[in-house]
Amino acid sequence: MSINKKVGLFIPCYVDQFYPNVAISTLELLQKLGCNVSYPMNQTCCGQPMANAGYERDTVATTQHFLDTFESFDYIVCPSGSCVHHVRDHAPCIEGKETFQKDIQHKVYELTEFITDILKITDIKGTYPHRVGFHSSCHGQRGLRLASSSELNQPVFNKAKQLLAKFEGLEWVELSRKDECCGFGGTFAVTEEALSVQMGKDRLQDHISKDAEIIIGGDMSCIMHLSGIASRNKQAIKFKHIAEVLNEAII
Amino acid sequence: MNHPVQAAKFLEDKSNAKWHDETLWFVRDKRDLSSKSIPEWEKLRELASGIKDNVLSNLDSYLVEFEKNATKNGIKIHWAKDAEEHNQIVLSILEEKDCKAIVKSKSILTEECHLNLYLEENGVEVVDTDLGERIVQFLNQPPSHIVLPAIHLKKEHISEIFHEKLQTEKGNNDPYYLTQAARKHLREKFLAAKVAITGVNFGVAETGEFVVCTNEGNADMGVHLADTHIACMGIEKLIPKREHLGVFLRLLARSATGQSITNYNSHFRSPSEGKEIHIILLDNGRTKQLGREKFRNSLKCIRCGACMNTCPIYRRSGGYSYGSVVPGPIGSILSPGIDLKKHSTLPFASTLCGSCSDVCPVKINIHEQLYEWRQEITKAQSSINAKSIAMKIANGIFSTPFAYKISGQIMRGSLKILPESVTYSNLNTWGKERDLPELPKQSFKDWYKNKGNE
């Protein structure tokens, strides 16, 4: 990729508010990889929480705002599979601006796929001496196909693993149920609270029983849910976003 | 029916919920192994999906072709527009044969029509002959799963039921012993029934024949001993040609249980001498669903149940939590089309994880339809409820950067100053069993600005 291309940093609203370090890591990582990155200050939310709750029609203005904010960039990169999936596949169609919207949708990438598919970097040198479990977010995995899905008869791949696995000292944990949902699910986390929590506990247990030291995820929403349960139950396992890990480990 | 309430109730018995989850995961695991043993699996799914798309697009002509060929073979075809008409047709045939007791092999369609209740009210004894269905029938329960009707029951519980109903030895939980008892009991029913009812897995338009798949051979036993066979069939069950069975039979059993093929795939073409075959073709809302562009391909379903076995919600909430004849993900996209109000919580009983769509042998985009049903349901609900006002406010906030910034600051600010008793009170559902993240001093936006960026 030409270094002169302009990359717009798209930070999910809850990451902006709750997990600034994930955003900072994404910014620094992309800069280390040679990108010309900037963060358009006017961005807000992509509209996903409303759309998944059944109010897609009420996100037209939000979607319009997103398109205007990111119009001038060559690439739009986001450390969340879920938000990217929404912008690409679920955002309501803006009437009269279909081509404009399509053009922008095609420029939106989740962080790991941007690194492996656009920057074409498959081998990042670094050290990360930890035993890690990876939590694939469903929207990233089955929505954006960032990893093969266990239901399909297809060659096994995982873009995050591709980037992490070669770090010196990193031990990759194989889970019993390798891509089961953690139970976050947006408003599902509160409307189906009992199920959501049970699914989270089960997911955590899979990692803990395999002696994972850190759970790495590509979506902070899943991690917020899992870490919230672990913290309440005084489970010592740690959590990181993949941007933080890549940014820390990279040489 | 309210799914969250039922799910929470199911989860109260933690060890039972865990057992249910693991039991169904075991079936999903078997399905994975079996589907991966066939290199052309994804091609088969593609093919099956394409064939079913073709059927749905030409359903009118395939139905006419099927009727013509079946009639030629000596089968009597009946058309039923709804459940009531369907049940009346069944009863009229029974009355004509002066039949007061029937045997029935597994048919979700007759569950949909509540046929058992209707016949019993009209003085006909109905005996479900599928072992799982017989067990739930003893309990006056509907099936909790479309392929594994009694999957929610443990063998100890079944032993108690059999002790009461079939006088088996108390406390004898040996599956072989219990199965033998059921077998003996059912044998008498088979011998006595003059009419047997079955469902239909596939109707072949080209030949006018139909195929019924069972693992226990109970459909064949019933049909061969009876003089009259009534086959109850949804109009979407057609496939164009016999050769297409090769695609569907390979997918069905592997998806359902991980078997390479169902034990009995019985082809019925024409009645033997002195006997009768009737087919009742049922609409009951199917043409309506066919007319809904976003939801029509839910009619491609071949009822394998794989979406239930894979669904992390179904596994942890049980079939009854859905309150619909077909539970699980596929039920959650079929049922709102029948009664939107009654089933309005079902499309929300999902994280939209997408596992159901990836496991589906006919590639129904189940999770996308769940998303679409959500849009329909919120439209149908009053537009002045609290949630919809919140969404309109949210759209206002997120389309205005300044408003977003202020509300974010208020949110982070108030979380910091509110006492824990409020943040984690019952009003805050998130906080019941989960901690909130530690709050950062500043948002990323503030950090970025402080670095001298604008």
From TrEMBL, chain A:
Q: Which InterPro entries match?
A: Cys_rich_dom (IPR004017)
| Entries under Pfam families matching the protein | CCG
Record-annotated Cysteine-rich domain positions: 7-87, 132-226
What the entry lists under PANTHER family is as follows: LACTATE UTILIZATION PROTEIN A (PTHR30296:SF0), UNCHARACTERIZED PROTEIN YKGE (PTHR30296)
This protein's name: (Fe-S)-binding protein
Automatic annotation (TrEMBL), chain B:
List residues of the 4Fe-4S ferredoxin-type domain: 291-312
Recorded superkingdom:
Bacteria
Say yes or no: keyword Transport present: yes
Listed Pfam families: Fer4_8, LUD_dom, LutB_C
For this UniProt record, the keywords arranged alphabetically read as follows:
4Fe-4S, Electron transport, Iron, Iron-sulfur, Metal-binding, Repeat, Transport
Does Calcium count among this protein's keywords? Answer: no
Which InterPro entries does the UniProt entry name for this protein?
A: 4Fe4S_Fe-S-bd (IPR017896), 4Fe4S_Fe_S_CS (IPR017900), FTHF_cligase-like_sf (IPR024185), Helical_ferredxn (IPR009051), LUD_dom (IPR003741), LutB/LldF (IPR004452), LutB_C (IPR024569), NagB/RpiA_transferase-like (IPR037171)
Protein name in UniProt: Lactate utilization protein
Q: What organism is this sequence from? A: Belliella calami
